[in-house]
Amino acid sequence: MAVIYEIKERRVIPNWRDYKRTLQLGELNVANKKYKPIDISIDRAIFDWQLNKDIGTAADVINSSFVADKFNQSEVREAIDYIKKNENKSSKSLLGIINEIENSGRILTSSNSILELDVDTIKEFQAFINNDTFHRVINKTKNLAKKDLYNPITWIELGRLYSMRGHIAKAEKAILTALQLAPNNRFVLRSATRFFIHEEKFDKAIYYLRKSNNIKNDPWLISAHIATSSIMGRFSPYIKYGKSIIESNDFSDFELTELLSSLGTLEYKNGTFKKAKALFEKSMISPNDNSLAQLEWISKDDNRFEIDPFKYDKVINPFEARALELFERGNWQDAFYNSIKWFLDMPFSKRPALLGSYIAGSLIKDKNAAIILCEVGLQANPHDPTLLNNIVYSIATSTEIDKVLLEKYVKRLIEIDIHTLPDESKITYQATLGLVYLKKGNLELGKSLYKIAIENAKRINNDYLKNLAIFNFTRELITLDLPEKHEYISMVEKIKISNDKKDLQVLKKDIEELIRMQPNKSVKRK
Amino acid sequence: MDVKEETAAHSLLGRTLKNDWKVIRKHEKKDGDTGGFFSVCYTVSKNGELAFLKALNFTAFFQLFKGRPIIEILSEQTNAYKYEKDLLNRCKNNRLSKVSLIIDEGEEIVDDFTISNVPYLIFKIAEGDARSHMNFSMNLENSWKLNSLHNIAVGLKQLHGVRIGHQDLKPSNILLFQDGLVSKIGDLGRSLCSDIEAPHENNGNFPGDFSYSPPEFLYNFIEPDWNFRIGATDMYLFGSLVVFYFTGTNMTSLIGKNLDPQFKWTRWRGTFEQVNDYLINAFYKAIQEFKSSIIDQNLANELAEIIEYSCFPIPNRRGHPKTLKISNDKNGDRRTNLNQFDFRRIISKFDILTKRAKYNLNSK
Question: What is Dmax (Cα atoms) for chain B?
Answer without folding.
Answer: 69
